[in-house]
Specification:
Layout: H1 3-15, H2 22-34, H3 38-43, H4 54-62, H5 67-71, E1 73-76, E2 79-82, H6 95-104, E3 113-117, H7 123-131, E4 136-141, H8 144-156, E5 163-167, E6 178-183, H9 198-201, H10 215-220, H11 224-227, E7 228-237, H12 243-252, E8 257-261, E9 267-273
Length: 274
Amino acid sequence: MTALARALSRATQQLSATSDTPRLDAELLMAHALGIERDTLLLSRQDHMVPAMYPELVERRRAGEPVAYITGKRAFWNIELEVGPGALVPRPDSETLIAAAIDHFAGTPGPKRILDLGTGPGTLLLAALDQWPEATGIGVDSSKEALAYARKNAERLGLANRAHFRRSDWAEGISERFDLVLINPPYVAEGEDLGPGVAEFEPAEALFAGEEGLAEYRRLAPELNRLVARGGLAAVEIGSGQADAVGALLAVHGLQARLARDLAGRPRAMLISA
């Protein structure tokens, strides 16, 4: 066994108590320390010298800091985003919204105008603009830190001329209708256990939404009718146990929603067609 293989094995053991994916985390941190991609690491003979910084990176992760904050990047859909403190780390579950939009617009040129409410580091908007090269859109967030990452990501991905970002409280001041509205609001109930490091490191305002986790849905539901263009789609992310409650909130405002599930089969988004 090489020194690098031993270091990966030791890091996996160290991270097993605080991570659901200890081996993956160990490999991502090692690749970052070596300045290579994880795929390159896995395909190599693993005879690299172990970087001196590696134990420190492992210790940061063991203390709960997200891997994305340590490496400064996170893959999402077909793009890679820069992330850091103040910006919610993109989750694979949110890809459900992009997949649902692709299904909705199948056989058409796709959406021309896209709105992403709660864009964070530009996650859903930039993934959608990459998917539909003729589209333009607006990403909205209340966090200046998150928007700084969003603008940087748009520039790096060559999408700055198609993506506009604004700091606002949801759709305040927006009068336009959009073909595609993507929303990932805070939906965690106050006091809910999110696992090691999440609440300690990621922005609370992007996670928590009152005692039931429904506070922001109550604010958003009355806005959707005026935001979605005819033939368009609104895709709203939900927590895995919130389908009935969010569906009822939407129904109060005359919105009939259907459910989309993530790859694990869990309820993940409410879809409203105009």
